[in-house]
Amino acid sequence: EYDGERNAEGERHGHGRARLPNGDTYDGQYENGFRSGQGIYRFKNGAYYTGEYLQNKKHGKGIFFYPDGSKYEGGWVDDRRHGYGVYTYANGDTYSGEWFNHNRHGQGTYVYKDTGSKYVGGWANGIQEGQAELIHLNHRFKGRFLRGNPVGRGKYIFDIGCEQHGEYIQAKQDKGEEEEEEEEEDEPSLLVEPKWKASEITKLTFWTPHGENPPSPREASLVTAEAAAAEAVEERAEASVTEEEEKPPIAGLF
Question: Which ranges are annotated Acidic residues under compositional bias (predicted)?
């Protein structure tokens, strides 16, 4: 059913209201028979979209309210989330940043409502990847992520005024002899969560792994002078790293 303006050819053109055969409704602008311009599309399941359309597809700026209570507000291209947008999830988590082809992609910030932690950094096809900072209540981690897990060198920065440097090492999962015999040669090895291996504790430094230069040798020598005293601090700090922190800080959050 359609109630609204039409052009000389009889096509829907201008403002109109329509009820689709599946029970959905649309109230907004048309152009030559297509939904184009501002409009509100209400789905039979309770979801609805308010924003811009182009030839029947969400395109431009708009807000989509999902049936589970989540919401996306931002850019759309060809009916998919694209550009900058903010997604509020049903559990209260939020993501604000870049989107590409319906996925979190580029630079963005994900905030976990339950813990208050947040991930600030790169994304690729919806997964945490690239240089990033994972910020917790009393400490944070700076380093690189790959396929949702921290990888390689990085550092933990504690509010007590020190840093723990080290690296995440990817280990292969142990297998029994029978499993090893049955495993085909071209089958990829099963991987387990990367483990944090601490190397040293230093005072706070004012550089990050985001392309800036590390401290000069003279600045580094100032830290070396405190190495002896830091050994005792290191033992206590390593002991204070909980079992959760020894695993990838984001493990289990997705």
Answer: 176-188
